[in-house]
Write a structure and sequence with these properties.
about 350 residues; alpha/beta; 2 domains; 10 helices; about 15% strand
Amino acid sequence: MTPITLLVAVLCLVVGVIAARTLRRRMLTAPPISTSRAWTRLALVALLAAFALSLVTIAYFARMRALAMVFPTRSLASRAPEQYGLLDYQEIEFEASDGLRLYGWYFPPQNGAVIILIHGHGRNRAHLLEEAAFLSQAGFGLLLYDARNHGASQGSFSTFGLLEANDVGGAVDFIQSQAAGNSPPIGVLGISMGAATAILAIEQIPQVQALVAEAAYASLDGLVRGNLYNLARLPAWPFAPLFIFFGEQATGAQIGAVNPAAAIANISPRPVLLIHGELDQTVPVSHAHQLLAAARPPKDLLLLPNTGHGGYLQTGGEAYVEAVVGFFHRYLVDPRYR
């Protein structure tokens, strides 16, 4: 028997015992009544007990799923850069803008520009090594790090981009500290939560000059209310309001503040490339269209057919690589666009 099944069984037993005792006391102390009235009262008590049990069960499941998202299971990097032909790098640690200690890898640039790669929820820096490999081959420097509350980095909970934006600020500070003199051109590539993080951060960080946002959500509130089943295997009604409530209580963060669609408009005139899988069930492609509509030029959207949430290199192939490398080369390296 699972813990959830056991809890529901115990709750049923407790509610049943309370209902039975209440009904027995009433029947012993009340004047004699007809059998039909007694059964009516019994049915009413049972109905109220079932309703109360339903509320408790709904709240329990909503809380458990919300906490699983806020406190994801950590996984350390199980792959190394050497496995992808990336030999010139260093293990680094740096402070986020709010003081948390973060850990990552830094690859010095060959063409003068550096790109920060930001992984998604429940992942770690190693999940972007394939992207790092083709960007490194194109001459770009790279900074891959474990986001707060992920991998080896500090942090006790996730806010899906809100506080994670401080991680990007720390990464930019580290890159600038490595430059001898002038700061190098800096770009960011993020996926899913990493993309939302990047949008929220770059609005406030003018040193970042170009953004590739993959599978980004337009707003966390809209994502939860519209797609909770694919996120947490719960129907939006009646769970979404409780899911949001428990998540906010655990983090102290307001879900409405995680609104990349509102932030992306302020990134211009810096360029944004949105990339999204047309078959994405985790973050539906409608979020990409919302972000594109909210952004100001220069902006572009690359839709990948037969593609879900991530795995763009496998499904997009050379077209995906050329789009990403070409975008960063144009806006970070080519002097005509800088």
